[in-house]
């Protein structure tokens, strides 16, 4: 196809030298391209630019002349600027500001063909379609998350941190969890296709990190066929002295690839590397939202996650306040490193619904020193492991334990003996938490009298029983017997052999009473294996211990 075969509206739009310059500047052709190659490439580009063709058809002769002059001036200015030819993009020929200035809107092509010779101001286009209240509340629009309460379909999300705080590491890990359907820090995920733009790191570093994370996750990298990397790709945005804009060719190419590969989650690492724009300029940020992010979401409902840096103070993100305005959620990554461990905290700083508030994890990185062909030493990552952790402060129930403890109280039956592995298996299966977190929950419950541990720690005979929030009739008699034994057998300042009492009474009830009395100050641990009687409770009410048990919050 040659230019002469195109519609007359485009035949003489650009002079040949200008047309060739634009195509060479965008690397569509080489400087040595023939006239036929120039026209052929322009034809290919033109066929995919419906918006451009629609707009041109609306220009009258005078407007078209003004438009062509603006293009010539843009090219002339481009040639004089530093960077020269590569500063010009084909998106510039759309001159959106020119069309807006002349109140020219982009209509459907068939409408333009029909009304080509009519005044645009006489055209009325109805686009508003309001819903009645009944229609509105009947709309089904449930939020679909790809990770439990994190990163929903059709949303814009930010992960930000100071430099070198492992936000790329956590993002690679997140991407691999999604691509393989593996839990992300003990949170269930949906297996989806993932795209990752990384303009920050050399491909060798990305590969080294990703392989290490795969090793730490114990997954076979060779079987992952739904994770797509864009490393050191062309900028998606460009700008001049007046505005920033999305490069149309690359946007269309990206959209087509997303559709072809059915990508559901797309990472941009980092926001600043999207292209030539000022992150402090609200106009530029809103161009990114409207012309790139919203465009992709509208066409594919993709979930977008971009990485960003904090300001110098390290407390907030860098750049325009409009960045927060375009977000559905934002997560701040904080790194604390000790001699042995790397601790990461992922804190939600903006959310629209019930997204997760806080996650924390320990990162274990194993490296090895190698030597290249030139004899130079370098470090290679062997393994990167992420393990979820839960903070515990002053023996108080952490907020993140609440659902776990509620589950234990509901599922474990009073008086039944449970092995350690049985409780861990129960927690892992029903709450999707790791064995390490399960053990932490069990330990916390022991420390806070929610469950009682019997037997030596580490022993095969060790088991657990849940404490009672109330007691049954049969259990009342057992507790009365224990209380009466104390009343009749001991006086203040006596030392009581714990093991002898355990052999006399059923251990779980004896320990239950002993712990409660100790808490009230009636007993104390006098020395290893012995209780000291302090102010033994001798109330007249036979059900005194029962009353205490029922009043206390177990």
If you had to describe this structure to a student in words, what would you say it looks like?
By secondary structure, the protein is of the alpha/beta class. It folds into four domains: 3-122, no CATH class; 145-334, 3-Layer(aba) Sandwich (Rossmann fold), CATH 3.40.50; 399-466, Arc Repressor Mutant, subunit A, CATH 1.10.10; 473-551, Orthogonal Bundle (Arc Repressor Mutant, subunit A). Helices cover 40% and strands 20% of the residues. It contains 20 helices and 19 strands. It has helices spanning 8-11, 16-25, 35-47, 50-57, 61-80, 96-101, 109-114, 133-138, 167-180, 203-217, 248-261, 282-300, 322-325, 402-411, 420-431, 435-447, 473-489, 498-504, 507-520, 544-551, and strands at 145-147, 150-152, 156-161, 193-198, 227-231, 237-239, 244-246, 263-269, 303-309, 329-337, 342-350, 358-371, 377-389, 418-419, 451-454, 463-466, 495-497, 523-527, 530-533. It has a nine-stranded mixed sheet with strand order 5-4-8-9-3-10-11-12-13, sandwiched between helices. A three-stranded antiparallel sheet has the order 14-16-15. A hairpin with a 2-residue loop joins strand 1 (145-147) and strand 2 (150-152). Helix 11 (248-261) packs parallel to helix 12 and helix 15 (420-431) packs across helix 16. The chain is elongated, with a radius of gyration of 34 Å. The termini are far apart. The model is unreliable at 1-5, 82-87, 106-123, 391-396 and 539-554 (pLDDT under 50).
């Amino acid at each position: 196809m040659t230019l002469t075969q195109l519609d007359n509206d485009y035949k003489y739009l650009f002079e040949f030298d200008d047309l060739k310059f634009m195509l060479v500047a965008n690397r569509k052709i080489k400087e040595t391209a023939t006239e036929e190659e120039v026209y052929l490439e322009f034809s290919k580009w033109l066929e995919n630019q419906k918006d451009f063709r629609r707009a041109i058809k609306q220009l009258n002769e005078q407007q078209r002349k003004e438009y062509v002059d603006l293009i010539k001036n843009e090219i002339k200015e481009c040639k004089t600027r530093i960077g020269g030819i590569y500063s010009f993009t084909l998106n510039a020929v759309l001159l959106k500001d020119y069309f807006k200035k002349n109140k020219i809107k982009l209509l459907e092509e068939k409408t333009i063909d029909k009304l080509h010779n009519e005044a645009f101001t006489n055209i009325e286009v109805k686009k508003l379609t309001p819903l009645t209240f009944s229609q509105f509340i009947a709309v089904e629009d449930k939020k679909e998350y790809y990770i439990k309460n994190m990163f929903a379909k059709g949303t814009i999300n930010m992960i930000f941190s100071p430099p070198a705080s492992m936000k790329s590491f956590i993002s690679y890990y997140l991407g691999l969890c999604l691509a393989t359907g593996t839990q992300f820090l003990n949170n269930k995920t949906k297996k989806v296709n993932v795209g990752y733009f990384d303009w920050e790191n050399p491909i060798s570093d990305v590969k080294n990190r990703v392989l290490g994370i795969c090793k730490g996750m114990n997954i076979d990298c060779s079987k992952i066929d739904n994770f797509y990397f864009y490393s050191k790709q062309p900028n998606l945005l460009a700008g001049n002295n007046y505005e920033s804009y999305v490069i149309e060719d690359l946007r269309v190419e990206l959209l087509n690839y997303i559709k072809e590969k059915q990508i559901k989650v797309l990472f941009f690492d980092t926001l600043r590397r999207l292209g030539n724009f000022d992150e402090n300029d609200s106009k530029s940020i809103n161009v990114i939202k409207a012309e790139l992010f919203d465009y992709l979401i509208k066409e594919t409902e993709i979930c977008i996650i971009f990485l960003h840096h904090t300001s110098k103070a390290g407390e907030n993100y860098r750049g325009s306040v409009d960045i927060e305005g375009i977000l559905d959620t934002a997560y701040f990554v904080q790194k604390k490193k000790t001699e042995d461990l790397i601790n990461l905290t992922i804190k939600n700083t903006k959310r629209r619904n019930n997204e997760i508030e806080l996650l924390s994890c320990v990162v274990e990185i194993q490296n090895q020193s190698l030597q290249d062909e030139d004899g130079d030493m370098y470090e290679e990552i062997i393994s990167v492991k992420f393990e979820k952790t839960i903070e515990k402060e002053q023996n108080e129930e952490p907020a993140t334990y609440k659902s776990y403890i509620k589950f234990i109280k509901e599922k474990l039956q009073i008086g039944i003996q449970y092995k350690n592995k049985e409780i861990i298996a129960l927690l892992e299966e029903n709450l999707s938490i790791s064995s390490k977190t399960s053990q932490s929950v069990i330990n916390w419950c022991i420390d806070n009298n929610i469950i009682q541990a019997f037997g030596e720690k580490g022993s095969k005979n060790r088991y657990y029983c849940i404490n009672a929030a109330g007691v049954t009739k049969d259990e009342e008699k057992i507790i009365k017997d224990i209380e009466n034994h104390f009343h009749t057998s001991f006086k203040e300042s006596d030392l009581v052999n714990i093991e002898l009492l355990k052999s006399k009474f059923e251990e779980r009830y004896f320990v239950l009473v002993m712990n409660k009395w100790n808490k009230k100050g009636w007993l104390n641990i006098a020395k290893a294996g012995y209780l000291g009687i302090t102010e033994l409770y001798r109330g007249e009410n036979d059900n005194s211990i029962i009353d205490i048990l029922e009043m206390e919050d177990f």
